[in-house]
Amino acid sequence: MSVCFHRLAAPGQLVLFAMGGTAYLALEIAWRGTTHWTMFLAGGACLCALDALGRLPLPTPLLAGIGAVGVSVLELGTGLACRRLLHVEVWDYSQEWGNLAGLVCPKYTALWFLLCLWVLGMMRFLRGFAAYVAHTKA
Length: 138
Hints:
Structural class: mainly alpha
């Protein structure tokens, strides 16, 4: 258990979490015009999960699909927690086709797929670039 906690508390993971949380808040403000502090936590968790996914030797589109489902599940959990524990309706997709509890829907899962595809591609590119730079300096 302490090894797992140590991995989560590593400085790089905390920076990644903060970047994901900040990006998620900015994305929500740009898309919907509003956000909630819980989205910082959701965004941080999403980026850390995508980082772990991106290290798997699988095709990027498959990883993006897994990531999009993961983001949707996290949004469902966050939305339910906000409703039940904080008594706050952070968003409402009840008018969207195929919605689940008004918290997730196929339309936004598809958009998450596109964003995950881009994020995973960028992460792989940056890891490769960093490895190249490290190799040329050696």
